[in-house]
Design brief:
By secondary structure, this protein is an alpha+beta fold. The protein has 2 domains: about 20-410, no CATH class; about 415-545, Topoisomerase I, Chain A, domain 4. Helices cover about 35% and strands about 15% of the residues. The radius of gyration is 27 Å and the shape is globular.
């Protein structure tokens, strides 16, 4: 393969490699130049990125944001941002000029400065390894659970570029190859330094109607105080090419300088091995580690949780760590964490949980009337869950919550609280259903944990679509009290139906019941008793569905 110029080196600014879905529903691959030029709402425009995995979409979006921030050297403030927003297309002339200036650094196989790689990276044995090491859907030792049962023997240049970006963002920890020249490598091995930076995050970003809107909604202005950048903030391709070792000296202490630096953070040292037909091997080593503690003023795309354990361990008054997603928990159930900080802040206490700064940024756009309150967005949640000492990716989470931006504005406190309370209503009501399932099991003399958990799963599964539809209708003109009452009615109808099914299928033993000993004396357990307790608990959880305070229903 010729590599004497950008094109021969598989120039990522010109060659298609970024997977997208167009507004007409068709899929395509675009170059960096094309993706910015076509990120609009026309018939041939791009609706969104579609990576091989949701985590790949997240990593590619952050790469595009780093390009856009650096090409524009901004936006400086909300006025600059608004000028971009009112245009129908992105400023492609400026972006094209920028990409041309830095074209050499976007050559995937450039002989001296290959994109996101170290050109002369090698081990003492001059070896390379299977591409399974960077392809996240081929976990080592688990071939039958992957999309490639025989492993990733060879990749096209476009797919290899995508997995390269993903590796820097989400690569697992564990023992890796030790590069010659890395002072921290021992006996040819690189010992664990943690997962790629984005792997620490419960990733959150905002999606709009097309890719242009998505890019702009996540393009935080320089004067947005919750997210700060130093003067030297720039993406990886504007730093000198790295060597085999990690950052040292003042850079190791002061970086990342801002979001451009962080979105392209080189958490690994990589070298791809290729021929004319594609990429056939990789050398993957550790790069620059990054402590996750108290990075909330640099990283906008995650929530943050206070860690008393780390405060005690490090002897510091306040430590925040990224709030990771729970794969088994739908994003709408964590809606409060997207809409407001949590904790007794009014009493002067530090928040237990900080919402993602990117949501604060969109709230500012609403508060300053740059975005209309009836503008619709999707809060997208993406993350990786690691297993076995973070050496493999066990699960990838991907969910979204559709909402009006009015929910974020300072003028919509009652509307926002109605949405948060609706989630709490569902949690309390489902808990009552879980108690019913457990009570039926106890009456039959069988363990209660499995029936309780099965009831939880079924209930939240049936409420999932109902809540999403309810939230989509919670617009700026809605009556918060009436909408919450409507929600409680829907929850009650759903759970009463499930409860009837549970009681009907509880079995003869549960309906007959049995006597159990308790500290308060003997107690008769039966399906009838469990059902009565359920209806009392449901009335308490959903008080707006109770017609009169003196109702004797179900007693």
């Amino acid at each position: 393969m010729t590599t004497d110029d950008g094109a021969g080196a598989f120039d990522l600014t010109e060659r298609p490699w970024i997977p997208v879905r167009r507004r007409d529903g068709t899929d395509d691959e675009l170059s960096l130049r094309q993706v910015f030029a076509q990120a609009h709402s026309g018939p041939d425009g791009v609706a969104r990125l579609v990576g091989d995995l949701p985590t790949q979409e997240f990593a590619l979006l952050r790469l595009l944001l780093a390009v856009l921030h650096d090409a524009l050297d901004g936006p400086a403030d909300i006025d600059d941002w608004h000028e971009l927003w009112v245009e129908k297309t992105l400023p492609t002339e400026r972006i094209d000029a920028y990409l041309h200036t830095h074209r050499e650094r976007f050559g995937l196989l450039h002989p001296r400065t290959p994109f996101f790689q170290v050109a002369d990276l090698y081990t003492a044995k001059k070896e390379h390894f299977s591409l399974d090491r960077i392809v996240a859907d081929v976990p080592n030792g688990e071939p039958f659970f992957s999309m490639r049962a025989r492993g990733a023997r060879r990749l096209g240049f476009a797919e290899a570029a995508r997995w390269l970006v993903h590796a820097h963002a989400f690569d697992p920890s564990g023992i890796k190859s030790g590069a010659v020249g890395d002072p921290d490598a021992k006996q040819g091995k690189g010992y664990p330094r943690g997962v790629g930076w984005a792997g620490n995050l419960g990733g959150v970003y905002v999606e709009g109607d097309d890719l242009r809107e998505t890019l702009l909604l996540n393009l935080v202005a320089a004067d947005f105080e919750p997210v700060r950048a130093d003067e030297g903030d720039r993406p990886a391709w504007r730093f000198p090419p790295g060597g085999p070792g990690m950052l040292t000296g003042t850079e190791a202490v002061s970086r990342p300088y801002g979001v451009r630096d962080l979105y392209t953070w080189q958490s690994r040292r990589v070298r791809l091995f290729a021929d004319d037909e594609g990429v056939y091997g990789v050398l993957l080593c550790y790069g620059d580690p990054l402590d996750a503690a108290n990075r909330q003023q640099r990283e906008p795309m995650t929530g943050w949780r206070r860690s008393p354990a780390q405060e005690k361990k490090r002897g510091k008054a306040l430590i925040y760590l990224p709030h990771e997603h729970q794969p088994a928990r739908s994003a709408w159930r964590g809606l409060e964490s997207l809409l407001q900080d949590q904790g007794d802040i009014q009493r002067g206490e530090a928040a237990r949980h900080l919402k993602p700064p990117i949501m604060d940024w969109v709230a500012r756009l609403v508060n300053e009337d740059v975005l209309p309150q009836d503008h619709f967005i999707r809060a997208r949640s993406v993350g990786a869950r690691y297993g076995t000492q973070q050496s493999v990716i066990d699960e990838v989470t991907d969910d979204r919550v559709d909402m009006y931006v009015a929910l974020l504005g300072e003028q919509s406190t009652r509307l926002r609280q109605a949405a948060i309370d609706a989630v709490s209503d569902a949690d309390k009501a489902v808990h009552a259903l879980g108690d019913l399932a457990a009570g039926l099991a106890e009456a039959a003399g069988i363990p209660a944990d499995t029936p309780r958990n099965q009831a939880y799963d079924r209930a939240f599964g049936e409420l999932d679509g109902l809540f999403r539809a309810w939230l989509r209708d919670l617009g700026p003109q809605a009556d918060p009290e009436q909408r919450r009452r409507d929600w409680q009615v829907r929850v009650r109808a759903t759970l009463v139906r499930i409860a009837r099914d549970l009681v009907l299928n509880a079995g003869e033993a549960a309906h007959t019941g049995r006597v159990v000993e308790t500290p308060q004396g003997d107690l008769w357990l039966s399906a009838g008793r469990a059902e009565r307790r359920f209806h009392r608990g449901l009335a308490k959880a959903l008080p707006l569905t109770v017609t009169t305070p003196t109702s004797k229903e179900h007693e």
